[in-house]
Design goal:
about 230 residues; alpha+beta; Thiol Ester Dehydrase, Chain A; 2 domains; eleven-stranded antiparallel sheet; 4 helices; 11 strands
Length: about 230
Amino acid sequence: MSDTITVQKRFCGPPESGNGGYVCGLLAKRFTGPVEVTLRAPPPLDHPMSVEGDIQTGLQVVDDGQLVAQARSVELELEIPELPEWEQVIEARAEYPGFKHHLFPECFVCGPDREPGDGLRIFAGPVPGTEVFAAVWVPSVVLADKEAKINSEFVWAALDCPGYFAVTQDAEPMLLGRLTLECEGDVYPGEEYTVLAWPLGQEGRKHFAGTAVFDREGRRLARARAVWVSLPA
């Protein structure tokens, strides 16, 4: 199969490239079940990129001959920590590190400079006494499909940035290298959700994080495992 992906500037992470989770989700929605997406280069904005390959052997996003991303179906094993109480999630949001210092304050997912209804405004802060970071997410209706469900690429986006804050305490420059995610239920606009993030270890410049989203009844709707790569000094 062959088609294209275009990342609108609104969906940026760094100012000149697409938010990694959102881009992964655009590619992953062509599959069913858990999908692993590996980012190979910063995705350009407002520029069509070719999608090549097939879902049986894997898909690739290519921009003028440069490999940008690869996706394939996989299995996902991930242990999920205990879900904090709602009051703890509210309190954690107030301690979001990005309120004090943010490398990309206009990031579509976690940028504090984005207005409500424009960015996702997912602000994950630490839950005292745990390694878990937690955030409130109330998806906007503009992110919904014709069936009034939030499009899956925005769920992928929501489970991107919180993992970064769970693996660094000093705003270390990192980029998302890989995101493996499974959508397990539907997300709806205007509802309140909890996004969790927690560290899963480190190997050299690679930092591993888990993320998940839950509804107010504690039902898990998606889970993900991310690889974040520290940038050279």
